[in-house]
Amino acid sequence: MSDEKPVGIVLVSHSAAVAAAVAELARGLAGVGGAVPVAPAGGTEGGGLGTSAELIAAAAASVDRGAGVAVLADLGSAVLTVKALLAEGDELPEHTRLVDAPFVEGAVAAVVTAAAGADLAAVEAAAVEAYTYRKV
Question: pTM of this prediction?
Fold first, then answer.
């Protein structure tokens, strides 16, 4: 990885366990350890299923190194919550993007690409490209 600041990655799921597991998987497959800041934002503050604007905002702040933050979300209301935060304008770090990508494959592609020192646009493009991955 270059000396450039890395793009941060936030993984938003309705389940804290799913968000944490996908973060662990992406870090592990990318072999980056702590080189790329990745934060899960899953479930509600009380540990239930759902999404939390507060948890998402805190996760985004925790991974922001100044190069932008890519946010991937699993399902409908997670996407809506991120969109609402982006519309607020001051809840998320500057240069935060909601990335339209498959959750697991997109997360892995985003982390691998961020680890290579890519900028936010390239990280987003790699995650989006994961839609084309064929399994059969």
Answer: 0.95
